[in-house]
Amino acid sequence: MDKLTAAKVFVDVAQSGSFTATADRLDMSRPMVTRYIEAMEKWLNVRLLHRTTRKVSLTTAGERCLKETEVWLEQAENLVALSDNSEELSGMVRVATSTSFGFAQFVPALLNFMSIHPKVHIDIDLQDSVADLTERQIDLAIRIASNPDPSLIGKPIAVCESVLVASPEYLANRGDISEPEELSGHSCLGYKNFQQHVWHLTKGTQQKSVNVDCKLTANEATTLLHAALLGGGVAIQPTYLANKYIESGTLQPILSDWKPANLTIYALYSSRKYQSPTVRALIDYLQEYFKDNCW
């Protein structure tokens, strides 16, 4: 059996903890995964994995072999890259991103990338929560955060600015807002991950924190955006989502001098050392794309 494929199967099973997950990820049958693991153990003359009906885990010898196998795979991938003169990217990339960013900005970027590399296929997983990438078989996650998950490698690809907005109809009924403190008397639209809704705003060197009343909350930005468009209240929205509605006049910016904190948009991936050339190229492409295509 092919030793390189067997090594990839072993590393994937070690990361996923599941023969079935590895079979799905590598597009092979579960019995074939078992055969590759058995072949690895025969070649190395050591038991690599503890197997039960519920769990797969590394043996002590498996832990030692895993590190060496990852190094060997990285070297093998580098040799393949050096010998490949076609320079044509291909294969499937599974990407996770938030609904709002995927809807507003990410899909146009991906379609452009795929037009440049027609043999690349991309599967998008829309999730607003951070979850284990290996378990969900995700190659790359696009996340907006102040600090990325320390267990992942993160490359900044853009800055996420936010703005306070409301519909013209809401402001006509409730009146304009000229100072941050006035927000406490308005209907606000908030993210439900926070039990207490305190909006932190900055104007130059000044900082203010305002307790707001959020009668409507949601865990996803586009839902709050549409609530604001329907006159439901004041919302903090990322500019990548809100700018086109501000330009059309269907939303109005509020307290333009006062800004919510900026966040960073990261391309996150697990620390596996044999990352495919297609994933590496996609990360570099996204960084350049959003530098040239500001929203």
TrEMBL record:
Q: Which GO terms describe its molecular function?
A: DNA-binding transcription factor activity; sequence-specific DNA binding
Carries keyword Transcription? Answer: yes
| One GO BP | DNA-templated transcription
Q: Which keywords fit this entry according to its UniProt record?
A: DNA-binding, Transcription, Transcription regulation
Q: Does the keyword Transmembrane helix apply?
A: no
**Domain HTH lysR-type positions:** 1-59
- The residue range of the signal peptide is none
InterPro entries the record matches: LysR-type_TF_proteobact-type (IPR058163), LysR_HTH_N (IPR000847), LysR_subst-bd (IPR005119), WH-like_DNA-bd_sf (IPR036388), WH_DNA-bd_sf (IPR036390)
Q: What Pfam families does its record include?
A: HTH_1 (PF00126), LysR_substrate (PF03466)
Q: Which family does it belong to?
A: Belongs to the LysR transcriptional regulatory family.
In its UniProt entry, what is this protein called?
LysR family transcriptional regulator
